[in-house]
Input
Amino acid sequence: MPAKMVDKLYKTLTAALSGNLRDLKGDPITDHLVATVMGCSSFLQTLTNRPLTSFVVGKKYFMFEHNGKTSRPVNIALFNTKPTAAALKKVISCDVEGMTSDAITKIVYTAIQSYCCCTDLLKSGDQKTPGTFFEILIGHMVSKSLGVNPERQIRVPTLDLDITIPTDFVFDLGPGKNRVHLPIKISTRERVVQVWAHQRVLDGMHGVARFKGILVAMAEMNKQKDISVAEVCLPNQWMAYQMYIAQMFRVYYLDIPTPYLKLKETYPFIQVKPFGDFFSEIDKIEKSGVGGA
Amino acid sequence: MPAKMVDKLYKTLTAALSGNLRDLKGDPITDHLVATVMGCSSFLQTLTNRPLTSFVVGKKYFMFEHNGKTSRPVNIALFNTKPTAAALKKVISCDVEGMTSDAITKIVYTAIQSYCCCTDLLKSGDQKTPGTFFEILIGHMVSKSLGVNPERQIRVPTLDLDITIPTDFVFDLGPGKNRVHLPIKISTRERVVQVWAHQRVLDGMHGVARFKGILVAMAEMNKQKDISVAEVCLPNQWMAYQMYIAQMFRVYYLDIPTPYLKLKETYPFIQVKPFGDFFSEIDKIEKSGVGGA
Output
């Protein structure tokens, strides 16, 4: 598959969304996502891959190779080299009843990595579309689950001026329910403080925890010289942000960094979980109170 | 002057600072800064420059050209094409008594642009050293003025754990005085939310306004296709951050963006001023109270 093919699949997907995310939760988006992932996966199935030395205890990684280029690291335990369109469609359309959190997480991880590895290998300097693809996929699944499409800007209630500012996805779930603030990042690094800061702005404008803050991230990998791989984590900063800036309700990862997994065991008890857990927690997201977990 | 020469001047400067900014306010740093700027300036004096179409009302810009490369935009009214070592040394060592704010701002602007334009023209993909040079120059002048060297990490006072986290420059001015939180950025763009977020963490850890937050930035220019130049500003976001995240005490610019200049006229009255004003406000920074301006 040439680079053009990936471009075409991606453009069909984003074109379906043009006009302000008109229907991010709609069925056509499921179909475009499945088609894009299947196209990418069938290309990756023609390639060789090479194991990386992993400095992450208990996790093994490889990378794909093609024409002298290499992909980002792929977690062997989470990546399905031969996903079926039926399995992808079932999960991406949120028909996950009876599935384990692990099984959901693996399919979603596979879908995202298939697209990201293809762009790593087939395109040059494309930092942007993997992030957008990730945002569309997660945004689609979350909005389908919540039954509402998101907004991307919000009115600031000042006494003097009428101001709107751009935000990450925010959802209005209707009367009697919380609202949702959903930042989506492939990796976070030191930019993560933005997530807590935007949550703080929402808390300040609309009341503490009026919006439940849910960060969804992919992984925090650092590949060194095409040989080894490590996780880049800042757990102390995360604790300070959760204590002093605002309180994120959940952080979901596809490939959870080990240092973050432990954050829920000690104060301030940041709830970092695999993305597959989202589907069994929708009720809490919609209805838990200001102090609720 | 070849690229090597700029590298050598820069390395002498940073070497003088090695070992954790041992004496950022010290006289040797003044001398290295002056030598670096004079070296860069004499190279720039051998070059031609070309005017840019300015979309910024009341401001004119040009760029330097060399071997097919072009520099960032330079504000004609603020840039001195032939600075003297004596004038640079006087200002960089903070011997500014009797000088106007304008005159100080111009010398500092000239010093920074001389280094930045040289790296634009002589090096490839060097995003980092201009930011570090700017941070050293401003950090030197502020610490000399306050009479104290800064720290770059801070202890988080938790009941359970002993945590230190990295910060921008922070200054302990001693008993009876405020402390200072000094982020320094060539340009801010949407990353600026970090500044307010870090101020919020300090407020949360040590009490509101225990640290006076002072952001120093260069400019917010966007050069398009080597033809024109515009300012990229987000005044609505700044207002929301100042209302809901934390309160920055001052924002100083070398080349103030017009939309930010107006922020001090309406609530929440963000005090954005030319950098030269800093020297007449040191007393306020050291001693004003929680609500004080």
Observations:
- Residues 52 and 225 of chain B are 10 Å apart (CA to CA).
- The longest strand of chain B covers residues 162-172.
